[in-house]
Design a protein that fits this description.
alpha/beta; Rossmann fold; 2 domains; 5-stranded parallel beta sheet; 10 strands
């Protein structure tokens, strides 16, 4: 659980500063929105001693209206508090509607300390974990946004920070005996913390592990997580079924309008590279079969962008017995009567085989969204449902490669016109294609949101610049080969 912090790469300093400015401005606006909607926010800061929880907390609240938040440090329970139920002092601290409450250490610290110092047995630990889970669920069921952060640093980093603080007479008070004990017993503490977080991680109140080695980077991770969580809470306020906070590490993505489409390849270079790449892909397919690695290739893109031709060059390199291409159309009545992902769960490849999807589960957040085939609540929930689906596939051992085949509006018009005027191509163009073209701007907005919310580190999106179809084919093969090589290397 703790190791999940490694999934997110640290940006450059200039990018961190720019993103922090945006996040702080957004949080100021959100605080007023939460106040207006009477939505409470409960934020728990946990982590290693000297990891910088207090410093980041100070940065988070610096621009907030002090009338609508409070922050406290929880200490070990007093004798009087120990005479009350375990959760009593935490229930006492929950914020009023429209208010923010920040807790520096809380029920995690109390439970894990009791484990580390043998003050509770296994059954009591289990009971306390169940209490914490029910507590958090009860809050979310009643409209609270609950966010949990764990600030992670290495043993070496903690040792160095503790020494610096102890050597500074004005700051030595910030290190207590437990911090020193924790550092001396780092490995033991790590195991207890990790187990607790595994036991109490949930889809509605997930743990957010913060890479706290860099204070600015830690601040940005916390700020952007809070902002994203509040956005979800504000949407949940008006929706029938609550949305779930994203718990999956996401890649930074570009908007479609910012992607340059002038990339080309010469015919001679195309022929040479195509042949070489197909030979390499064929060999990798054989290795993937022997290693039992399933491969899932998902194609989305604009009408007439060249998905079919791209798929054909890919499959030409594969053993016909080792792949299936699934052209995905509108769901049939028996598919509509089930969960929207059911028809994709039933089309997954066997180990060592390819499943290639021409259109995918992303129809939920594009065509179904824009054509009104599902409710807003349905497609808003689908981002997380899709991320969970793809995480299941990744954990199973699948290689997941997702392509958005991208062209500009003028190129699409030229290809539509060519299809319309060429008898043998007319079957490729329909009235629906023309209707979809009229909604280009709406689709572009939906695609940008889709890519931003579902380009995870384990199932990233790749943009194929396809004004030149040949360039897009070569790029797709290179990406797929690289992904397979990486998977095969990790299997050794």
């Amino acid at each position: 659980m703790i190791e999940t912090y490694k999934s997110i790469p640290k940006p450059e300093s200039d990018e961190i500063k720019q993103r922090l400015d945006i996040a702080h401005q957004r949080l100021m606006e959100q605080q007023l929105q939460m106040k207006e909607n009477q939505l409470p926010v409960f934020i728990l800061f946990e982590g290693w001693g000297a990891a910088g929880k207090g410093t980041v907390l100070g940065k988070v609240i610096k621009n907030l209206d002090p009338r609508f938040f409070s922050a406290i440090s929880m200490h070990d329970p007093s004798p009087d508090e120990k005479r009350k139920p375990f959760l009593a002092r935490y229930f006492a601290e929950i914020p009023e509607a429209g208010q923010f409450k920040f807790l520096d250490a809380g029920w995690m610290t109390e439970i894990t300390k009791d484990v580390l110092f043998d003050r509770i047995n296994k059954q009591t630990y289990k009971n306390r974990v169940n209490s914490a889970i029910r507590f958090e669920r009860s809050l979310t069921d009643n409209g609270y946004l609950v966010l949990k952060f764990f600030f992670h640093i290495s043993h070496k980093e903690q040792s160095e920070r503790i020494k610096i603080l102890q050597d500074n007479k004005d700051r030595s008070w910030q290190v207590d005996d437990y911090d020193v004990w924790e550092n001396d017993h780092y490995d033991e503490c790590y195991k207890v913390f990790d187990k607790y977080m595994e036991d109490t991680n949930s889809s509605t109140v997930p743990w957010n592990v913060i890479d706290a080695k860099s204070r600015k980077w830690a601040e940005l991770q916390v700020m952007e997580t809070i902002v994203a969580g509040i956005d979800v809470a504000l949407k949940n306020h008006t929706l029938t079924v609550p949305l779930i906070q994203n718990v999956f590490p996401l890649n930074r993505t570009q908007k479609l309008k910012d992607i340059k489409l002038n990339k080309t390849i010469s015919d001679e270079e195309y022929k040479t590279q195509l042949k070489d790449l197909q030979v390499r892909l064929k060999a990798l397919h054989n290795q993937a079969y022997l290693k039992g690695i399933p491969i899932i290739v998902a194609y989305e893109g604009w009408d007439a962008a060249g998905k079919g031709g791209n798929i054909k060059r890919l499959t030409s390199a594969l053993d016909a017995r080792g792949y299936i291409v699934h052209p995905i159309a509108s769901p049939k009545p028996f598919e509509k009567s089930r969960h929207h992902l059911w028809r994709f769960w039933t089309r997954l490849p066997k180990t060592g085989h390819f499943a290639i999807f021409d259109r995918t589960w992303y129809g939920r957040v594009m065509v179904e969204r824009l054509e009104g085939f599902c409710s807003e609540n349905d497609w808003q929930r689908a981002y997380n449902e899709i991320n969970e689906f793809e995480k299941e596939l990744s954990d199973w051992g699948a290689v997941i490669v997702k392509f958005w085949v991208h062209i500009d509006k003028d190129t699409q018009l030229a290809r539509f016109t060519d299809r319309q005027n060429t008898p043998e191509k007319q079957w490729k163009i329909t009235d629906e294609d023309w209707r979809n073209r009229d909604k280009w701007d709406l689709y572009e907005q939906a695609v940008d949101e889709m890519i931003a919310k579902t380009s995870t580190t384990y199932a990233p999106w790749y943009i194929l610049e396809s004004n030149d179809k040949k360039y897009a084919r070569i790029k797709a093969l290179k990406i797929l080969i690289s992904s397979l090589e990486k998977a095969l290397k990790s299997k050794k």
